[in-house]
Please model this.
Amino acid sequence: MHATNLSARLAPAEYPVILFYKYITIADAETFAADQRELCAGLGLKGRILIATEGINGTLAGPAEAVDRYVATLRADARFADVEIKVSAGDAGTFPKLVIKVRPEIVTLNAGAITPDKDNQLSPSEWKRMMEENPDAVPLDIRNRFESEAGKFENAVVCDIEHFRELPQYVDRLQGLKDKTVLMYCTGGIRCEKASALFRSKGFTKVFQLHGGIAAYQEEFGNEHWQGECFVFDQRMTVRVEEGLVPIGRCMHTGRTTSRFVNCLHDPCHKLFLLSAEAEAENREYRLCPECLAAGITFATAEY
Ligand SMILES: [Zn+2]
Model:
């Protein structure tokens, strides 16, 4: 996708937010991070990019022209020529600042040296067909417990974990799936690439992952085979529930009826909690979970 196409897609978003990741070896992560910092700051972008020797994971927001320029520059680097970019609409308040960090991993699994898998990714239609036609296939939801509790693919096995980094220990409890055809999925695909490698290293032989995650599947097939509420990414590395479903939850800050989940803005916490859109519009401090607010963290001081 060229920058011009991106512009066309962005209309009418004047202030687009992009989400992207790619696992690829970045030999000198510190230098690359410094270059990214200079590029993003020069363009006036805000948001967060995590960089590791294993790749990049970012979300940025800014004026359409600046976002276009960023994407064009990133794709001009051969390593990122094919990086997939998800675009949604934001505004000037979407992110308070620009944070670019070098981390050991772009999503923390803490399972030692792992090379993420790409060879077993299925497109949403391939994945759906396998789910429908292979009697041996078991969907496996590798997201955190609170995510799968709100909604999941029918007949999916879920994981009783609070954080992705608990998965390496949890695998042992899924031995019953070892000889099954495992149809692994997460929200946008970034977790599956690692989890797939982890499962295969533990002797699971028939593992497939949903390319682009629930977000990509849902763009094509909506709620088909989905049970409960449906999470998709929105612009703030958060998830929300599809419009039109009857909300059952309560906003944790204001008690309003809502089924809108966000992740706590404070990255070390990152807890998923219910936050009504009205509450967030009233007070941006509500992007922090009640525990973080009580601990004195604010929108301006949060690490993310
Ligand atoms: Zn928090």
